[in-house]
Amino acid sequence: MKYLLPATLVILLSACAGEYAFNSNLDGEAINDYFKVGDVTLYEGSIQPKGPYEIKGLVEGETCQIGESDAPASIVEARTLARHAAADKQANGLVIKNCLLIEESTPNCVTRALCVGQAIVTTTAQE
């Protein structure tokens, strides 16, 4: 009897050992695309880039509140979309030129938020 319990445990534990593969519905490329805005430094107001930089182009981000019951348009989300557009241009910085919250209703949007800026590549380390 004293040998039966350890033998049973060894058999049960060895049954769990095997070559199992982990499959996920998450796409590594999509995850990298989602987090790439974290590589873009935001410069706005009194915070401006120090040192030389190259302008990659003009970018914008826009959000729209489609219905009355939807979340209102957000400048924060518009700014994030502009950072995403800057990352798409291989920029590592975004100088915000202007952000607007338009609360006048149109046929397409109840409210809108829009941010416009310059996508830049800095050549020196930022503080």
What is the strand and helix layout of this fold?
Layout lengths: L3 H13 L11 H8 L5 E3 L9 E13 L9 H14 L4 E10 L8 E12 L5
Parallel strand pairs: 1-3
Antiparallel strand pairs: 2-4, 3-4
Strand order of the largest sheet: 1-3-4-2
Report the average pLDDT across residues.
87
Biggest sheet architecture:
4 strands, mixed
Instruction: Extract low-pLDDT stretches.
Output: none
Describe this structure in words.
This protein is α+β, with helices and mostly antiparallel strands. The model has no long low-confidence stretch (mean pLDDT 87). It has a 4-stranded mixed beta sheet. The longest helix has 14 residues, at 75-88. The chain is built from 3 helices and 4 strands. Helices cover 28% and strands 30% of the residues.
Q: Which descriptors would you attach to this protein?
A:
single chain; about 130 residues; alpha+beta; 4-stranded mixed sheet; about 30% strand
Task: State the gist of this model.
By secondary structure, this protein is an alpha+beta fold. The chain is built from 3 helices and 4 strands.
